[in-house]
Design a protein that fits this description.
50% of the residues lie in helices and 18% in strands. The chain is built from 13 helices and 16 strands. The strands form three sheets. Strands 1, 2, 3, 4, 5 and 6 form a six-stranded antiparallel beta sheet that branches. α10 packs antiparallel against α11 and α11 crosses α12. The longest helix has 69 residues. It is extended, with a radius of gyration of 35 Å. About 7% of the residues have low confidence.
Length: 521
């Protein structure tokens, strides 16, 4: 009787399976590597843009402060000789020429008359300030930074003004510097050149959401108040989001608001540009690894043929010497080739090993490599389950006291040991269904399921006393500060509860550290 299994030999099947396994494992590895790097690159780009926007905002603030200080010094000098037109003109010229900060400089007397201007080619000297916005600026007898407005010449400007008082405290006039926002100025050098070469760019909006700086000049003056990034900026002042711009292009945006001017500074990177690097990285890794894959495949195939050769001989002997009861078991198996019963046990073992590796991989992706506690992503998933199950929980945020000084004084290895010691103490304090997470740096989170704030406070106080018995490098006790919040009392969303716990943690630090505070709001 014809049977297909008489023609399908194990050695061919074995080689085919190994080749298929190599192909599939390579494809899965490349795909998982691509997806993982994709997410990592997105998170890194968002964080980089957020930090860069914050730094630019700080730079703008420093520029404004420095400009005001420079003008204050000049105003104090001019107060002693305010009637000397030549000296006033020299001061205006000096401010105009010093560092290309101001596009023009005016000195106005107490009645709003322009006494001198720089550059002198403006020809404003002897005239009166007429524009409503200009008068508003000069009527303020205090240091002042104006909102962007349109001057009588049609330029979009801001004015930094400094009052001039004589030694008796009498108001003499105003020293003001004008910055043309749409022309080349100091802001061009601060904001104009983004350090990345991936299509990133910076733009700035005023308090109403209108664009006052953009590398594409035609975008200046455009109302961007309805864009996702600007809406979010006006709500939160600083942060990062994935948003779609006005041209329906996905962008990775970081934003921050200047404290001195309340302008919003936005750093954007096209999504496709930022993440195209991931594909290049994966392709590079695959290209480097391809020779090793080919070599390994050939080596395994040769070894497989060598391993199968004795199995074929054993199969021929077993075909005639197998017991009847064993044959009954064999017939109960859906065997589509005759060697299958010989490798069934090996396959079961192989799959067990594979499942073990998968479980190990899952554990590695859900835990922090240093402390072996849950990482942030795993914590969020477990909290989501608690929320779906409508379980109450109390969340504790801890922060190691003076951790930076440990790193700076004794090195990061000593700092890592301190974190590991604290992590072990946190594990010891856990009860069934409790969670411990390294939230980031020296910050940890404990989640006590179905636990009141009062009970949580007692447990954390006990933990704090226990931890204090441990000695840090330098002989000092290991201490931490903690804040406590509850899911029923302080919000439904995890981020809200963490924010409340963080507020309490901040209060614990303000109150002297090495203490536990409970959120009351």
């Amino acid at each position: 009787m014809f049977s297909l299994r008489n023609f399908i030999k194990l050695k061919y099947l074995f080689i085919s399976v190994i080749a298929l396994a190599f192909v599939l494992s390579t494809l899965i590895s490349v795909y998982s590597n691509y997806k993982g790097n994709l997410k990592l690159m997105q998170e890194q780009t968002l964080e980089n843009n957020r930090v860069y926007a914050l730094k630019l905002a700080e730079t703008v603030d420093k520029f404004i402060v420095n400009s005001k200080n420079t003008m204050r010094y000049s105003a104090e000098e001019l107060a002693y000789d305010f009637e000397n037109i030549n000296r006033l003109q020299e001061a205006a010229n000096r401010l105009y020429l010093n560092g290309d900060t101001f596009s023009s400089v005016l000195i106005v007397d107490a009645e709003g008359n322009i006494m001198v201007n720089a550059p002198q080619s403006l020809g404003e000297a002897g005239k009166k300030v007429l524009s409503i916005k200009g008068l508003e600026n000069y009527d303020k007898h205090e240091p002042f930074v104006s909102n962007p407005y349109t001057s009588p010449t049609g330029r979009k400007v801001i004015v930094i003004s400094m009052p001039i008082y004589d030694e008796s405290g009498v108001f003499k006039g105003v020293l003001s510097g004008t910055i043309y926002l749409y022309d080349s100025n100091i802001f061009e050098s601060i904001l104009g050149e983004h350090p990345y070469e991936n299509g990133s760019y910076v733009y700035v909006v005023d308090t109403r959401g209108k664009i006052i700086y953009h590398p594409e000049k035609e975008r200046l003056g455009v109302d961007a108040s309805n864009s996702e990034v600007v809406v979010q900026l006006l709500k939160e002042k600083r942060g990062a989001i994935v948003a779609v711009n006005t041209f329906d292009q996905p962008m990775l945006a970081g934003y921050s608001q200047s404290e001195a001017t309340r302008w919003g500074i936005i750093v954007q990177t096209p999504y496709d540009e930022a993440l195209s690097m991931v594909g290049q990285q994966v392709a590079s890794v695959f290209k480097i690894g391809l020779p090793f894959i080919i070599f390994s495949t050939i080596l395994v195939i040769l070894l497989a043929r060598h391993i199968v050769r004795p199995l074929e001989k054993i199969a021929d002997i077993s075909e005639n010497s197998v017991k009847d009861q064993e044959m009954k078991k064999l017939k109960g198996i859906h065997a589509w080739y005759y060697e299958v019963y010989k490798i069934q046990e090996a396959l079961i073992h192989s799959f067990s090993v594979l499942h073990g590796k998968v479980n190990t991989l899952k554990e590695e992706t859900s835990t922090d490599s240093l402390t072996k506690l849950l990482n942030r992503h795993a914590l969020e998933k477990k909290i989501k389950v608690l929320t779906e199950q409508q379980k109450n929980y109390t969340l504790v945020m801890l922060d190691v006291d003076w951790f930076k000084s440990i790193n700076d004084t004794y090195g990061h290895i000593a700092g890592d040991e301190v974190l590991q010691i604290l992590a072990s103490k946190l594990k010891e304090s856990l009860q069934e269904d409790d969670l411990a997470c390294r939230y980031g740096g020296e910050e940890f989170i404990l989640v006590f399921t179905e636990t009141t704030i009062e009970d949580a406070y007692e447990r954390v106080e006990s933990l704090r006393a226990n931890v204090r018995q441990m000695i840090c490098p330098g002989g000092k006790p290991l201490t931490f500060s903690a804040g406590i919040a509850n899911s029923q009392l302080h919000g439904e969303e995890l981020r809200d509860i963490i924010a409340k716990a963080d507020e309490a943690l901040y209060q614990a630090k303000e109150n002297g550290r090495n203490r536990v505070e409970v959120t009351h709001a």
